[in-house]
Design goal:
It is found in: Membrane. Keywords: Cell cycle, Cell division, Cell membrane, Membrane, Transmembrane, Transmembrane helix. It comes from Corynebacterium striatum. The protein is of the alpha/beta class. It has two domains: 71 residues, Ubiquitin-like (UB roll) (Roll), CATH 3.10.20.310; 116 residues, Cell division protein FtsQ/DivIB (Rossmann fold, 3-Layer(aba) Sandwich). 31% of the residues lie in helices and 29% in strands. The protein has six helices and twelve strands. The strands form two sheets. The chain has a nine-stranded mixed β-sheet, covered by helices on one side.
């Protein structure tokens, strides 16, 4: 076979491939017929599908995955979203939701980064934050850090965390006792002190210095 013939064959194959790619792009050879939503605990899958802006029957190849993910991320519970194609006909949507660790008056939920993200029924384990701290302030972020220092079995005994300022945080327990934490510092040792005083007699505890715990 001559060099000219080989060149012609290669050119023909490339032309076919280009035409095939163009056909797939221009015509809905691969249509969206289903959605696979993962990571949603608080958001209904139908809401996720709708917020993606992608409809059943659309050309899967031409779906703007970034725009679809951006649309899903607008849902209050969604922290981030990733959208990808699964040929021949599925759009995969994976979510990371906010973790509601606390809430304020009016059921305003706060995530693990101290961000207030939506109003909803507080999930089990979320602790109410009271006091005069401003929304989104460093005091709120400090309060979330303090809550994170407590293991779940201790956090379950907390009714609320009162935040007056960065140096004055007080736990109010479900059994009416109080534990003054102070500032968000040395939190690991304070958590150990917290666990210890819950096993002792006493109504009002001060563990702001975990090496010198006092009661009154």
């Amino acid at each position: 076979m001559s060099k000219k013939s080989i060149t012609a064959i290669v050119a023909g194959i490339l032309a076919v491939l280009v035409l095939a790619a163009a056909a797939v792009w221009l015509f809905p050879v691969f249509k969206v017929s289903s959605f696979e939503v993962q990571g949603n605990s608080h958001v209904d899958a139908a809401q996720v599908e709708e917020s993606s802006g992608v409809a059943v029957g659309e050309n899967l190849v031409r779906v703007d995955a970034r725009a679809a993910a951006s649309g899903v991320a607008q849902l209050p519970w969604v922290k981030s979203a990733t959208v990808s194609r699964s040929f021949p006909s599925t759009l995969d949507i994976e979510l990371i939701e906010h973790e509601a660790v606390a809430f304020r008056e009016g059921n305003l939920l706060i995530d693990a980064e101290g961000k207030e993200f939506t109003t909803d029924t507080p999930p089990e384990g979320a602790v109410e934050i009271t006091g005069s701290a401003e929304p989104g302030s460093q005091e709120i972020r400090d309060a979330v850090d303090v809550l994170a220092a407590l293991p779940q079995n201790l956090r379950a005994q907390v009714k609320s965390l009162e935040v007056k300022n960065a140096y004055s945080m007080t736990f109010h327990l479900k059994d009416e006792r109080t534990v003054f934490w102070g500032a968000s510092e040395d939190n690991a040792n304070k958590a150990l002190a917290f666990e210890t005083v819950l096993k002792m007699e006493g109504q009002n505890w001060n563990i702001s210095n975990p090496e010198l715990v006092t009661s009154k």
